[in-house]
UniProtKB/TrEMBL annotation:
Residues 167-200 form the UVR domain. Coiled coil: none annotated. This is Bifunctional nuclease family protein. It comes from the Bacteria. The keyword Glycoprotein does not apply. GO terms for biological process: SOS response. It comes from Prosthecochloris vibrioformis (Chlorobium vibrioforme). One of its GO terms (molecular function) is nuclease activity. Keywords: DNA damage, SOS response. The keyword Repressor does not apply.
Amino acid sequence: MNKVQVDILGLSTSPHTNGAYALILYEVEGKRKLPIIIGGFEAQAIALKLENIKPPRPFTHDLFKAVADTFQLKVTEIVIDELHNETFYAKVVCEMDGESHEIDARPSDAIAIAVRFSAPIFVSEEIMNEAGIKEEDEKEESALPEGKEGKPAELPSTSAPPASRTDLSIADLQKRLEEAIDKEEYEEAARLRDEITRRK
């Protein structure tokens, strides 16, 4: 299977996705992007790790990492390798005792695991050709369609933050972010993090 390495460009919300998020992957050595609709919980798990924010209690993906480290299981890569009925499928490739194993997973879970292991993310060339978006095509793309988790998504436009956040200073936003994490309100924490990042 021919595959290309991708990295995470960002996460975005859209009123058209019913509370879900669009995860945008970009081709490391190319100009294509691959947007995927993922659930809010998985989006938070990915975002918190990317921002090095440690929740008070471990997420499921953090637990997986702790168990894997305990038993010397190494995640070497994850591969988004199938697309059926507009739903992506992925494999988590692991090594243990010198043997390689492939574990079936949703792309959102696989990527949440990959960022915890600093493992590379790959997409099959066939999927990039079928569902990837080239830079010159972005102007022709409209808003995100409604869809279930794992479906391909069109590139979203990032909506402006609520007025209640725009009126706050970065210091106040940071304080609210810490409070949201303490209360385990991770969706609000993700929004506050996005606003802080937007201002920097």
